[in-house]
Design a protein that fits this description.
The chain is mainly alpha-helical. It is built from nine helices and no strands. Helix 1 packs antiparallel against helix 2. The relative contact order is 0.08.
């Protein structure tokens, strides 16, 4: 997209400032965002290098570990490396759940549902989508920030759409109707 190049410039500068200022907590998420922008700008090699750099500074920072694993998963998925994407999404889900990062669980669960459906494993897809929907429902009452609201809306839409698609593909139209 036309804004990806501008985002790369902005996030490159933000990462530099984080490093110079010693903001260890902010560097990995900034690098994960930079990798996403680089991938969107058509620079997958740079994106992989940036993710590798981000991964080296996530130790002991669960939010950073989760965000880096999610971005790594997205890139694997975009490269059609499904097994690696699944493994990275599972890592993101595990770290998020172990550390109470409940807003990120639906993102990983929805992606795992999408990948299961893509592989034709519709039972697994419905389980993952239902898990994502349950996680989203648990979040609904206490959304505290704009960032979390954005994750909530995206995860809600993707999880419901994926669940409906999987149920219809399995010929379970009555179940699909109940989801709506």
């Amino acid at each position: 997209n036309g804004n990806a190049g501008a985002a790369v410039g902005y996030l490159t500068e933000a990462a530099r400032l984080c490093e110079e200022a010693g903001f260890r907590l902010f560097l990995p998420p900034t690098l994960a965002a930079l990798a996403r922008a680089q991938a969107a700008a058509g620079a997958p090699g740079e994106a992989r290098q940036t993710l590798e750099r981000a991964r080296t500074c996530t130790a002991g920072i669960p939010l950073a570990e989760t965000l880096v694993a999610l971005e790594e998963s997205r890139q694997h998925e975009a490269d059609d490396r499904v097994a690696e994407a699944v493994a990275s999404y599972r890592t993101a889900l595990d770290v998020a759940e172990r550390n109470g990062l409940v807003a990120l669980s639906p993102v990983a669960l929805t992606a795992l549902g999408r990948l299961a459906a893509r592989q034709g494993n519709l039972e697994e897809a419905t389980l993952r989508y239902r898990g994502a929907i349950q996680a989203v429902e648990r979040l609904r009452a206490g959304i505290a920030s704009v960032e979390l609201r954005s994750v909530f809306v995206e995860a809600t839409h993707d999880a419901f759409a994926g669940l409906l698609d999987a149920l219809v593909a399995m010929g379970r139209d009555a179940d699909a109707f109940l989801v709506v």
